[in-house]
Amino acid sequence: xxxxxxxxxxxxxxxxxxxxxGFVGTSAPDWLLRRxxxxxxxxxxxxxxxxxxxxxxxxxxxxxxxxxxxLVAIDEEGGDVTRLEVRSGSSFPGNHALGxxxxxxxTRDVAAExxxxxxxxxxxxxxxxxxxxxxxxxxPVIGVRSFGADPLLVARHTAxxxxxxxxxxxxxxxxxxPGHGDTAVDxxxxxxxxxxxxxxxRARDLAPFRAAIAAGTRAVMSAHILVPSLDPEYPATLSHRxxxxxxxxxxxxxxxxxxxxxxxxxxxxxxxxxxGSVLAIAAGADAICVGGGLADDETVLRLRDALVGAVxxxxxxxxxxxxxxxxxxxxxxxxxxxxxADRSGGAPDTEIGLVAARRALTxxxxxxxxxPLTEAPYVAAFTPMANIAVGxxxxxxxxxELERLLPGTQTGSFTGPDAGALALAEAGERRIVAVVRDAHxxxxxxxxxxxxxxxxxxxxxxxxxxxxxxxxxxxxIATHGAxxxxxxxxxxxxxxx
Length: 497
Known about the structure:
Blueprint (H helix, E strand, L loop, with lengths): L7 H10 L1 E2 L9 H9 L3 E4 L7 H14 L4 E4 L20 H7 L2 H17 L4 E2 L24 H17 L3 E7 L20 H8 L1 H8 L4 E4 L17 H11 L5 E3 L6 H4 L4 H11 L4 E2 L7 H16 L5 H24 L10 H9 L1 E4 L12 E5 L16 H7 L4 E5 L4 H9 L4 E5 L6 H13 L4 E4 L11 E4 L5 H12 L2
Parallel strand pairs: 1-8, 2-3, 3-4, 4-5, 5-6, 6-7, 10-11, 10-12, 12-13, 13-14
Antiparallel strand pairs: 9-14
C-alpha cells in the first residue's frame, strides 16, 4: 500500500466515476446533473425513466449537455426484460427464443437492430446479454433470459449478440459472471450457491464468457453468487479470486467489470451497500451498479464517501480505485467514438423481432386438434409471481393479440390451487386458450392445466416460459418467452392468420 499522494478532490472524482446510479423521473434531476459535473461518468436507466423514444432521446441529450461522453446504461435484454417497451412488451424475442431457433446470424441481426434503437435514443451501454447457461430448469430468475442449457449453444449466441449489439456502437455488458444458470435461488432475495467442481464450472458456465471475450465484449457484469470451489468466503461480486484471478488473469479479460445491482439482498442484507462497494472495487470490479431501488443523491454520496474513506483508511488502494475509474473513462471514450462513427450500417429492420419470434415457435398438434379459431375465445392466463428482473408492469400473454384478431375475446388471470376450476367457470361455453409461464416450476399451474384439459380437451395451451413440461391440449405452442412479439406469433398460429 503506497502513501496517499493524490489530492482528495481527485479521489472524490474517481469515486464518483466508478458509480452507475439510477434516479427517479423522466428528466434528469438537478442533483444528478451536479454530480455529473463533479465527475460522475455513468447513469443507469430503468423503466420508470422511459415514456417514449422521443422523451428518452431528450433525456440522454440533457445528460450529455453536462458531459458529452457520459455512459448511459440500461437493462434492455429484449424478451421478458425490457425497459424501452416496459409498458407494451418487447418488439424483440428474448434469448431463449433465439436459442431455440439456433441461427447465429438471426441473433446477430436482432441484437444489431436492438442496438440501433438504443443508440438512436442516446443509450450506449446495455447490461446484456445474459450468458448464463440455464442448466437448472427450476432457476427462478434466469429461465428464458438464457439462450439455453447447452454451453456451446449459449456460447455461440452470446458471441453473436455481443457482435450485433456493438456493431451499433452500443457496448455489451455480458452477464452474470461466472454464471447464474445453476441456481435455485434469486440473488435479488438471497445469496445463491453453486456447488460444482471447478472443472464443471470452467467447461459449462465459463464457456459463454470466453466466447463473449473473444467477440470483444466491452463489459462484463458480475453475479452475486457464492461458488465455494472458487472462493468459499465471498460471492463473485466481492471476490478477488473470481474477478481478478479467474476473469482477469485466467480468461485474460481487460475490459470493464460492472457489478450487478448492489441493493440486491445478496449483497445489501449481508454486507451493506457501502462495504459491499468497497469490497467489490478492491476485488477487481470497476463500476458499481446501484439505482434499481435506491435512486437518490444520498445513495451516491454514501457510496462516494465510503470509497474515499476506504482509501484514507488503507482498506482500498488508491491505485485500484484509479485503475477502475480509468476503465470507466476508456469505455466512455469507446462509446463516444463508436457512436460518432455510426458503425451499424444498413437500414433499420423493423420486422426482425417478429420474424425471429415466429421462427422460435414450437407447435404441437394433439389428436383432438381442430381448425384454427374463428370465434372469440376465453383466454385463461395462469400468472406466476414475476421476478424482480422482469417486473410486473410489463404485459404478457396472447389476449391482446387475439382480441385484435378475434374481437370479443375475453380474458382472466388466475393463480393458486383453484385456478383451473375458476377458469372453467369464467370461460363458460367459449373455447379456452390457457396461457402458462414455466408450468414445470409451479405445481398449482400444472394442476390447473390438468383440470382444464379433463373437462375441455379442446383447450389450446400456450407455454411462454421454458417448455420443460410435455405438450398438452389440442394445440400446444411453446413461444420460448413472453415478449409482445411472441404473443403475436402465437396468436397468428391459433387463428391461422
